[in-house]
Amino acid sequence: MVGLVNGCRAEAADHPVVTSSTSMYAVIMGILESIKAVFAGGASTPRDARRLSAVDEFALSACLRVLHDGERGWITLSEARALFSPRDEQYAFGEMDEQGRANLAGFAARSEHRSDFDIMPVERQVYFTRRAA
Asked: Is the pTM for the entire model greater than 0.70?
């Protein structure tokens, strides 16, 4: 018997038929896990990024000071807006929010913070990366 497997022509003898319900369950679960992995791709927080406290500038400052050189940490975009931008959430750190971007840049660049920042609007997070001294 000839059929298509992954879009390729294949003989039935090349691929065993799943007969038990346990094996069928394992196959279905494997497919579902593969689909979840595809859609979960870039939406999660990278494993190397630490969640930073941003209840106020003092807490965020303390968190940035304990990051190791090259280490990343993040806060939510809402927290960053509350600390650094006068704009509404929808417009914070956008093209027209020069003051918010300048406040954030100045805070990250302070000598005790030595950080670069990346605003990730899709993830709704702001990442800080500690620079070497």
From this structure: no
